[in-house]
Specification:
By secondary structure, chain A is an all-alpha fold. Chain A is 88% helix and 0% strand. The chains are: A mainly alpha, B mainly alpha.
Chain lengths: 179, 279
Protein backbone atom coordinates (compact mmCIF):
# COMPACT_ATOMS: atom_id res chain seq x y z
CA UNK A 1 0.00 0.00 0.00
CA UNK A 2 2.90 2.32 0.85
CA UNK A 3 4.50 1.71 -2.53
CA UNK A 4 1.16 2.47 -4.12
CA UNK A 5 1.08 5.83 -2.33
CA UNK A 6 4.58 6.53 -3.61
CA UNK A 7 3.74 5.66 -7.20
CA UNK A 8 0.75 8.03 -7.43
CA UNK A 9 2.72 11.29 -7.03
CA UNK A 10 5.46 10.01 -9.36
CA UNK A 11 2.94 9.18 -12.06
CA UNK A 12 1.10 12.43 -11.45
CA UNK A 13 4.19 14.60 -11.73
CA UNK A 14 5.33 12.76 -14.86
CA UNK A 15 1.97 13.42 -16.51
CA UNK A 16 2.04 17.08 -15.44
CA UNK A 17 5.58 17.48 -16.85
CA UNK A 18 4.66 15.88 -20.15
CA UNK A 19 1.48 17.88 -20.60
CA UNK A 20 3.28 21.07 -19.56
CA UNK A 21 5.99 20.47 -22.12
CA UNK A 22 3.39 19.72 -24.78
CA UNK A 23 1.46 22.87 -23.90
CA UNK A 24 4.62 24.97 -24.18
CA UNK A 25 5.47 23.48 -27.58
CA UNK A 26 1.99 24.02 -28.95
CA UNK A 27 2.00 27.59 -27.58
CA UNK A 28 5.30 28.27 -29.34
CA UNK A 29 4.05 26.78 -32.60
CA UNK A 30 0.88 28.89 -32.38
CA UNK A 31 2.92 32.04 -31.84
CA UNK A 32 5.22 31.25 -34.76
CA UNK A 33 2.29 30.67 -37.09
CA UNK A 34 0.61 33.88 -35.95
CA UNK A 35 3.83 35.82 -36.61
CA UNK A 36 4.16 34.22 -40.03
CA UNK A 37 0.59 35.07 -40.89
CA UNK A 38 1.06 38.69 -39.86
CA UNK A 39 4.25 38.99 -41.91
CA UNK A 40 2.76 37.32 -45.01
CA UNK A 41 -0.78 38.70 -44.70
CA UNK A 42 -0.57 40.78 -47.88
CA UNK A 43 0.82 37.92 -49.96
CA UNK A 44 -1.62 35.45 -48.44
CA UNK A 45 -4.46 37.67 -49.54
CA UNK A 46 -2.96 37.93 -53.04
CA UNK A 47 -2.57 34.17 -53.27
CA UNK A 48 -6.14 33.45 -52.13
CA UNK A 49 -7.60 36.01 -54.55
CA UNK A 50 -5.31 34.66 -57.26
CA UNK A 51 -6.58 31.14 -56.55
CA UNK A 52 -10.17 32.29 -56.95
CA UNK A 53 -9.24 34.00 -60.23
CA UNK A 54 -7.50 30.85 -61.48
CA UNK A 55 -10.52 28.70 -60.58
CA UNK A 56 -12.80 30.95 -62.66
CA UNK A 57 -10.66 31.31 -65.78
CA UNK A 58 -11.22 28.72 -68.46
CA UNK A 59 -8.38 29.36 -70.93
CA UNK A 60 -4.67 28.81 -70.29
CA UNK A 61 -3.93 32.32 -71.53
CA UNK A 62 -6.15 33.91 -68.88
CA UNK A 63 -4.65 31.64 -66.23
CA UNK A 64 -1.18 32.70 -67.35
CA UNK A 65 -2.28 36.31 -66.85
CA UNK A 66 -3.53 35.50 -63.33
CA UNK A 67 -0.18 33.87 -62.54
CA UNK A 68 1.70 36.90 -63.87
CA UNK A 69 -0.23 39.07 -61.41
CA UNK A 70 0.83 36.72 -58.59
CA UNK A 71 4.43 36.85 -59.80
CA UNK A 72 4.33 40.64 -59.82
CA UNK A 73 3.30 40.75 -56.15
CA UNK A 74 5.98 38.23 -55.24
CA UNK A 75 8.65 40.22 -57.12
CA UNK A 76 7.65 43.37 -55.20
CA UNK A 77 8.02 41.51 -51.91
CA UNK A 78 11.42 40.06 -52.93
CA UNK A 79 12.63 43.56 -53.69
CA UNK A 80 11.31 44.81 -50.35
CA UNK A 81 13.00 41.97 -48.45
CA UNK A 82 16.28 42.59 -50.29
CA UNK A 83 16.21 46.22 -49.23
CA UNK A 84 15.74 45.07 -45.63
CA UNK A 85 18.64 42.62 -46.02
CA UNK A 86 16.30 39.77 -45.06
CA UNK A 87 18.20 37.04 -46.89
CA UNK A 88 16.07 34.13 -45.76
CA UNK A 89 12.91 35.85 -46.94
CA UNK A 90 14.48 36.80 -50.26
CA UNK A 91 15.38 33.17 -50.82
CA UNK A 92 11.97 31.86 -49.75
CA UNK A 93 10.05 34.31 -51.91
CA UNK A 94 12.50 33.86 -54.79
CA UNK A 95 11.67 30.15 -54.84
CA UNK A 96 7.94 30.90 -54.85
CA UNK A 97 8.45 33.36 -57.69
CA UNK A 98 10.29 30.79 -59.72
CA UNK A 99 7.53 28.20 -59.07
CA UNK A 100 4.84 30.62 -60.25
CA UNK A 101 6.81 31.62 -63.35
CA UNK A 102 7.72 28.03 -64.29
CA UNK A 103 4.61 26.09 -63.39
CA UNK A 104 2.07 28.86 -63.68
CA UNK A 105 2.98 31.32 -66.43
CA UNK A 106 5.25 29.21 -68.66
CA UNK A 107 3.17 26.00 -68.49
CA UNK A 108 -0.05 27.81 -69.38
CA UNK A 109 1.49 29.81 -72.19
CA UNK A 110 2.96 26.64 -73.61
CA UNK A 111 -0.42 24.92 -73.30
CA UNK A 112 -2.11 27.85 -75.04
CA UNK A 113 0.34 27.75 -77.88
CA UNK A 114 -0.23 24.02 -78.38
CA UNK A 115 -3.97 24.40 -78.81
CA UNK A 116 -4.21 27.84 -80.37
CA UNK A 117 -5.91 28.31 -83.69
CA UNK A 118 -3.90 29.67 -86.55
CA UNK A 119 -4.67 33.18 -85.50
CA UNK A 120 -1.95 35.76 -85.04
CA UNK A 121 -3.92 37.77 -82.45
CA UNK A 122 -3.63 34.92 -79.92
CA UNK A 123 0.09 34.55 -80.54
CA UNK A 124 0.43 38.28 -79.99
CA UNK A 125 -1.32 38.01 -76.63
CA UNK A 126 0.84 35.08 -75.61
CA UNK A 127 3.92 37.13 -76.38
CA UNK A 128 2.55 40.08 -74.39
CA UNK A 129 1.98 37.97 -71.32
CA UNK A 130 5.40 36.36 -71.69
CA UNK A 131 7.10 39.76 -71.97
CA UNK A 132 5.28 41.14 -68.97
CA UNK A 133 6.52 38.14 -66.93
CA UNK A 134 10.07 38.53 -68.24
CA UNK A 135 9.93 42.20 -67.39
CA UNK A 136 9.42 41.24 -63.74
CA UNK A 137 12.47 39.03 -63.62
CA UNK A 138 15.15 40.97 -65.48
CA UNK A 139 15.15 44.16 -63.41
CA UNK A 140 14.85 42.18 -60.18
CA UNK A 141 17.87 40.10 -61.14
CA UNK A 142 19.87 43.23 -61.83
CA UNK A 143 18.78 44.81 -58.58
CA UNK A 144 19.83 41.80 -56.56
CA UNK A 145 23.20 41.67 -58.29
CA UNK A 146 23.93 45.36 -57.92
CA UNK A 147 22.31 46.27 -54.63
CA UNK A 148 23.82 43.47 -52.65
CA UNK A 149 27.00 44.12 -50.74
CA UNK A 150 29.88 41.67 -51.41
CA UNK A 151 28.97 39.50 -48.42
CA UNK A 152 25.30 39.54 -49.43
CA UNK A 153 26.11 38.47 -52.95
CA UNK A 154 26.71 34.94 -51.75
CA UNK A 155 23.41 34.92 -49.86
CA UNK A 156 21.44 35.89 -52.95
CA UNK A 157 23.03 33.29 -55.21
CA UNK A 158 20.24 30.74 -54.77
CA UNK A 159 17.60 33.36 -55.48
CA UNK A 160 19.44 34.63 -58.53
CA UNK A 161 19.76 31.10 -59.82
CA UNK A 162 16.04 30.49 -59.29
CA UNK A 163 15.18 33.70 -61.11
CA UNK A 164 17.44 32.78 -64.02
CA UNK A 165 15.78 29.40 -64.32
CA UNK A 166 12.36 31.05 -64.38
CA UNK A 167 13.60 33.51 -66.96
CA UNK A 168 15.03 30.68 -69.10
CA UNK A 169 11.65 28.92 -69.10
CA UNK A 170 9.99 32.08 -70.34
CA UNK A 171 12.66 32.69 -72.95
CA UNK A 172 12.08 29.22 -74.33
CA UNK A 173 8.54 30.35 -75.15
CA UNK A 174 9.68 33.36 -77.16
CA UNK A 175 7.65 33.55 -80.36
CA UNK A 176 9.57 32.27 -83.37
CA UNK A 177 10.72 35.16 -85.51
CA UNK A 178 9.20 35.14 -88.98
CA UNK A 179 11.68 34.31 -91.72
CA UNK B 1 -1.48 -71.92 4.53
CA UNK B 2 -2.75 -72.24 0.99
CA UNK B 3 -1.68 -70.26 -2.05
CA UNK B 4 -4.83 -68.03 -1.96
CA UNK B 5 -4.13 -66.75 1.52
CA UNK B 6 -0.45 -66.25 0.75
CA UNK B 7 -1.28 -64.08 -2.28
CA UNK B 8 -3.70 -61.90 -0.27
CA UNK B 9 -1.11 -61.38 2.45
CA UNK B 10 1.59 -60.54 -0.15
CA UNK B 11 -0.74 -57.89 -1.56
CA UNK B 12 -1.21 -56.37 1.88
CA UNK B 13 2.46 -55.88 2.70
CA UNK B 14 4.81 -53.42 1.08
CA UNK B 15 8.13 -54.24 -0.56
CA UNK B 16 10.19 -52.56 2.09
CA UNK B 17 8.64 -54.54 4.90
CA UNK B 18 10.24 -57.91 5.58
CA UNK B 19 8.30 -61.11 4.86
CA UNK B 20 6.88 -63.03 7.80
CA UNK B 21 8.50 -66.44 8.46
CA UNK B 22 5.39 -68.49 7.48
CA UNK B 23 5.15 -66.73 4.08
CA UNK B 24 8.84 -67.17 3.49
CA UNK B 25 8.49 -70.95 4.20
CA UNK B 26 5.56 -71.23 1.75
CA UNK B 27 7.40 -69.34 -0.95
CA UNK B 28 10.42 -71.61 -0.52
CA UNK B 29 8.30 -74.59 -1.57
CA UNK B 30 5.68 -73.03 -3.91
CA UNK B 31 7.00 -72.01 -7.36
CA UNK B 32 3.74 -70.42 -8.60
CA UNK B 33 3.54 -68.15 -5.56
CA UNK B 34 7.18 -67.18 -6.05
CA UNK B 35 6.43 -66.22 -9.70
CA UNK B 36 3.33 -64.31 -8.64
CA UNK B 37 5.36 -62.38 -6.05
CA UNK B 38 8.00 -61.53 -8.66
CA UNK B 39 5.33 -60.00 -10.94
CA UNK B 40 3.93 -58.13 -7.99
CA UNK B 41 7.33 -56.65 -7.17
CA UNK B 42 7.82 -55.63 -10.78
CA UNK B 43 4.46 -53.90 -10.75
CA UNK B 44 5.25 -52.12 -7.55
CA UNK B 45 8.59 -50.99 -8.95
CA UNK B 46 7.14 -49.49 -12.14
CA UNK B 47 3.98 -48.00 -10.84
CA UNK B 48 5.73 -44.73 -9.92
CA UNK B 49 6.76 -44.14 -13.54
CA UNK B 50 3.21 -44.44 -14.87
CA UNK B 51 1.83 -41.13 -16.28
CA UNK B 52 -0.88 -39.59 -14.13
CA UNK B 53 -3.33 -36.72 -14.91
CA UNK B 54 -2.50 -33.27 -13.46
CA UNK B 55 -3.96 -32.86 -10.04
CA UNK B 56 -6.08 -29.90 -8.99
CA UNK B 57 -6.05 -31.07 -5.48
CA UNK B 58 -3.44 -28.54 -4.35
CA UNK B 59 -5.23 -25.45 -5.63
CA UNK B 60 -8.58 -26.79 -4.42
CA UNK B 61 -7.03 -27.39 -1.06
CA UNK B 62 -5.62 -23.80 -0.90
CA UNK B 63 -8.94 -22.32 -1.97
CA UNK B 64 -10.82 -24.31 0.62
CA UNK B 65 -8.18 -23.49 3.15
CA UNK B 66 -8.45 -19.73 2.60
CA UNK B 67 -12.23 -19.62 2.33
CA UNK B 68 -13.74 -17.48 5.06
CA UNK B 69 -15.54 -19.43 7.73
CA UNK B 70 -19.25 -19.67 7.07
CA UNK B 71 -18.84 -19.16 3.35
CA UNK B 72 -21.05 -21.40 1.32
CA UNK B 73 -19.51 -23.49 -1.40
CA UNK B 74 -21.18 -25.51 -4.05
CA UNK B 75 -20.61 -29.18 -4.06
CA UNK B 76 -20.40 -30.94 -7.39
CA UNK B 77 -23.93 -32.22 -7.30
CA UNK B 78 -25.20 -28.64 -7.08
CA UNK B 79 -26.25 -28.77 -3.47
CA UNK B 80 -25.02 -25.85 -1.40
CA UNK B 81 -23.07 -26.92 1.62
CA UNK B 82 -21.41 -25.03 4.38
CA UNK B 83 -17.65 -25.35 4.37
CA UNK B 84 -16.58 -27.80 6.95
CA UNK B 85 -14.34 -25.13 8.43
CA UNK B 86 -17.36 -22.96 9.13
CA UNK B 87 -18.38 -24.99 12.03
CA UNK B 88 -14.95 -25.73 13.32
CA UNK B 89 -12.90 -22.99 14.98
CA UNK B 90 -9.79 -21.74 13.15
CA UNK B 91 -6.87 -24.02 13.73
CA UNK B 92 -4.36 -22.66 16.15
CA UNK B 93 -0.58 -22.96 16.22
CA UNK B 94 1.59 -23.52 13.11
CA UNK B 95 -1.26 -24.20 10.64
CA UNK B 96 -2.85 -20.81 11.61
CA UNK B 97 0.41 -18.94 10.97
CA UNK B 98 0.82 -20.73 7.69
CA UNK B 99 -2.69 -19.68 6.71
CA UNK B 100 -1.89 -16.02 7.59
CA UNK B 101 1.26 -15.97 5.44
CA UNK B 102 -0.56 -17.63 2.61
CA UNK B 103 -3.48 -15.22 2.72
CA UNK B 104 -1.10 -12.19 2.73
CA UNK B 105 0.66 -13.51 -0.31
CA UNK B 106 -2.63 -13.94 -2.09
CA UNK B 107 -3.83 -10.46 -1.06
CA UNK B 108 -0.63 -8.79 -2.33
CA UNK B 109 -1.36 -9.99 -5.87
CA UNK B 110 -3.94 -7.29 -6.71
CA UNK B 111 -1.49 -4.62 -5.54
CA UNK B 112 1.24 -6.03 -7.77
CA UNK B 113 -1.29 -6.03 -10.58
CA UNK B 114 -2.28 -2.43 -10.03
CA UNK B 115 1.36 -1.29 -9.89
CA UNK B 116 2.03 -3.12 -13.12
CA UNK B 117 -1.07 -1.48 -14.61
CA UNK B 118 0.09 2.02 -13.60
CA UNK B 119 3.56 1.36 -15.00
CA UNK B 120 2.08 0.09 -18.26
CA UNK B 121 -0.23 3.12 -18.54
CA UNK B 122 2.67 5.49 -17.94
CA UNK B 123 4.76 3.70 -20.54
CA UNK B 124 1.95 3.78 -23.11
CA UNK B 125 1.24 7.47 -22.45
CA UNK B 126 4.91 8.37 -22.75
CA UNK B 127 5.40 6.32 -25.92
CA UNK B 128 2.31 7.84 -27.53
CA UNK B 129 3.50 11.33 -26.63
CA UNK B 130 6.99 10.69 -28.01
CA UNK B 131 5.62 9.16 -31.19
CA UNK B 132 3.27 12.07 -31.82
CA UNK B 133 5.99 14.61 -31.12
CA UNK B 134 8.50 12.90 -33.39
CA UNK B 135 6.17 12.25 -36.30
CA UNK B 136 4.65 15.71 -35.94
CA UNK B 137 1.18 14.26 -36.07
CA UNK B 138 -1.32 17.05 -35.54
CA UNK B 139 -3.08 16.65 -32.20
CA UNK B 140 -5.15 19.72 -32.82
CA UNK B 141 -5.18 22.52 -35.27
CA UNK B 142 -2.99 24.50 -32.91
CA UNK B 143 -0.12 22.05 -32.83
CA UNK B 144 0.39 21.88 -36.58
CA UNK B 145 4.00 21.84 -37.64
CA UNK B 146 5.24 25.19 -38.88
CA UNK B 147 7.62 23.57 -41.34
CA UNK B 148 5.28 24.43 -44.21
CA UNK B 149 4.21 28.05 -43.94
CA UNK B 150 0.75 29.04 -45.10
CA UNK B 151 2.17 31.09 -47.97
CA UNK B 152 4.09 28.14 -49.42
CA UNK B 153 0.98 25.97 -49.23
CA UNK B 154 -1.09 28.61 -51.00
CA UNK B 155 1.50 29.03 -53.78
CA UNK B 156 1.47 25.28 -54.31
CA UNK B 157 -2.38 25.20 -54.49
CA UNK B 158 -2.47 28.13 -56.90
CA UNK B 159 -0.04 26.44 -59.24
CA UNK B 160 -2.18 23.30 -59.15
CA UNK B 161 -5.29 25.37 -59.82
CA UNK B 162 -3.58 26.96 -62.82
CA UNK B 163 -3.52 23.59 -64.55
CA UNK B 164 -6.77 22.12 -63.20
CA UNK B 165 -9.11 21.46 -66.08
CA UNK B 166 -12.20 19.97 -64.49
CA UNK B 167 -14.59 21.36 -61.88
CA UNK B 168 -13.90 18.29 -59.71
CA UNK B 169 -10.19 19.14 -59.57
CA UNK B 170 -10.92 22.79 -58.84
CA UNK B 171 -13.39 21.92 -56.08
CA UNK B 172 -10.85 19.63 -54.44
CA UNK B 173 -8.09 22.27 -54.55
CA UNK B 174 -10.37 25.05 -53.31
CA UNK B 175 -11.46 22.82 -50.42
CA UNK B 176 -7.76 22.29 -49.70
CA UNK B 177 -7.21 26.06 -49.64
CA UNK B 178 -10.09 26.43 -47.19
CA UNK B 179 -8.55 23.73 -44.98
CA UNK B 180 -5.12 25.33 -45.13
CA UNK B 181 -6.60 28.66 -44.05
CA UNK B 182 -8.61 27.03 -41.27
CA UNK B 183 -5.41 25.58 -39.83
CA UNK B 184 -4.35 29.06 -38.76
CA UNK B 185 -7.60 29.77 -36.93
CA UNK B 186 -6.49 28.47 -33.56
CA UNK B 187 -3.00 30.05 -33.67
CA UNK B 188 -4.45 33.46 -34.49
CA UNK B 189 -7.20 33.13 -31.90
CA UNK B 190 -4.71 32.08 -29.23
CA UNK B 191 -2.32 34.90 -30.16
CA UNK B 192 -5.09 37.52 -29.84
CA UNK B 193 -4.35 38.74 -33.39
CA UNK B 194 -7.73 40.38 -34.01
CA UNK B 195 -6.92 42.04 -37.34
CA UNK B 196 -5.25 39.00 -38.80
CA UNK B 197 -8.10 36.82 -37.61
CA UNK B 198 -10.56 39.14 -39.40
CA UNK B 199 -8.46 38.92 -42.59
CA UNK B 200 -8.37 35.14 -42.31
CA UNK B 201 -12.13 34.97 -41.79
CA UNK B 202 -12.76 37.18 -44.83
CA UNK B 203 -10.51 35.02 -46.99
CA UNK B 204 -12.13 31.83 -45.74
CA UNK B 205 -15.62 33.17 -46.44
CA UNK B 206 -14.56 34.16 -49.98
CA UNK B 207 -12.99 30.81 -50.73
CA UNK B 208 -16.07 28.90 -49.59
CA UNK B 209 -18.73 31.19 -51.09
CA UNK B 210 -17.13 32.45 -54.31
CA UNK B 211 -14.88 29.51 -55.01
CA UNK B 212 -15.96 26.21 -53.53
CA UNK B 213 -19.74 26.51 -53.72
CA UNK B 214 -19.60 28.13 -57.14
CA UNK B 215 -17.44 25.33 -58.59
CA UNK B 216 -19.44 22.62 -56.79
CA UNK B 217 -22.53 23.61 -58.75
CA UNK B 218 -20.62 22.93 -61.96
CA UNK B 219 -19.92 19.33 -60.99
CA UNK B 220 -21.54 16.55 -62.92
CA UNK B 221 -24.28 14.77 -60.96
CA UNK B 222 -22.35 11.52 -60.74
CA UNK B 223 -19.33 13.32 -59.30
CA UNK B 224 -21.21 15.15 -56.58
CA UNK B 225 -21.47 12.59 -53.80
CA UNK B 226 -17.90 11.22 -53.93
CA UNK B 227 -16.33 14.67 -54.30
CA UNK B 228 -18.57 16.74 -52.05
CA UNK B 229 -19.24 14.23 -49.25
CA UNK B 230 -15.82 14.46 -47.57
CA UNK B 231 -15.65 18.24 -48.15
CA UNK B 232 -19.01 18.76 -46.40
CA UNK B 233 -17.71 16.81 -43.42
CA UNK B 234 -14.54 18.90 -43.30
CA UNK B 235 -16.53 22.13 -43.41
CA UNK B 236 -18.60 20.88 -40.50
CA UNK B 237 -15.45 20.14 -38.53
CA UNK B 238 -14.13 23.63 -39.19
CA UNK B 239 -17.47 25.09 -38.04
CA UNK B 240 -17.24 23.13 -34.80
CA UNK B 241 -13.64 24.18 -34.20
CA UNK B 242 -14.42 27.84 -34.87
CA UNK B 243 -17.45 27.67 -32.58
CA UNK B 244 -15.38 26.19 -29.79
CA UNK B 245 -12.73 28.86 -30.27
CA UNK B 246 -15.41 31.59 -30.24
CA UNK B 247 -16.60 30.36 -26.86
CA UNK B 248 -13.09 30.68 -25.44
CA UNK B 249 -12.03 33.92 -27.15
CA UNK B 250 -12.35 37.56 -26.10
CA UNK B 251 -15.29 39.57 -27.47
CA UNK B 252 -13.31 41.29 -30.27
CA UNK B 253 -12.43 37.94 -31.82
CA UNK B 254 -15.85 36.40 -31.66
CA UNK B 255 -17.35 37.97 -34.81
CA UNK B 256 -14.75 36.71 -37.34
CA UNK B 257 -14.99 33.26 -35.78
CA UNK B 258 -18.77 33.31 -36.00
CA UNK B 259 -18.53 34.36 -39.66
CA UNK B 260 -16.49 31.25 -40.27
CA UNK B 261 -18.98 29.11 -38.34
CA UNK B 262 -21.83 30.49 -40.44
CA UNK B 263 -20.18 30.07 -43.83
CA UNK B 264 -18.80 26.61 -43.03
CA UNK B 265 -22.25 25.38 -41.89
CA UNK B 266 -23.95 26.97 -44.86
CA UNK B 267 -21.36 25.48 -47.20
CA UNK B 268 -21.73 22.04 -45.67
CA UNK B 269 -25.52 22.05 -45.98
CA UNK B 270 -25.44 23.46 -49.53
CA UNK B 271 -23.04 20.76 -50.63
CA UNK B 272 -25.31 18.15 -49.07
CA UNK B 273 -28.28 19.65 -50.87
CA UNK B 274 -26.38 19.36 -54.14
CA UNK B 275 -25.88 15.62 -53.91
CA UNK B 276 -29.26 14.95 -52.33
CA UNK B 277 -30.86 16.83 -55.20
CA UNK B 278 -29.23 14.32 -57.49
CA UNK B 279 -30.48 11.26 -55.58
Amino acid sequence: MKSCLLIVPIVGSAIVCLSGQHWETSQRVDNDRAIQFHRDACLIETMVDGGLCLAKEETPLLRAECCTALAQQLATEVRHAAKNHDHARVEELGQHLRTVLDQGVAVNLSEMRKHMPADSSVEKRIEEVRRSAVSLVEPLEEELEQASAPQEHEEFQNTLQALRQGWAELERLRAPTPP
Amino acid sequence: MNCEVVKRRLLAISKSNGLPAELRTHLAYCGSCRAWRRRLLQLEQHVSSLPVPRSRGKSRFLRDFLREPGQVRKVPDGIAAVNSEAAAPAPAGPPGRFRLVLSRTMQSRPMVGSLAGIAALLLIAFSAYELRTRTGEPQSSSSESISEPLLAELVERDVRLSSADTPAERVAILADIADVLARDLAPLAHADAHEDLSTLARLYVNVVRSGLLHQARALRETERLPVLGPIADRLKEVANTAERLAQQSPVEQVQPLLDIVAVARQGSSELRALWEEQS
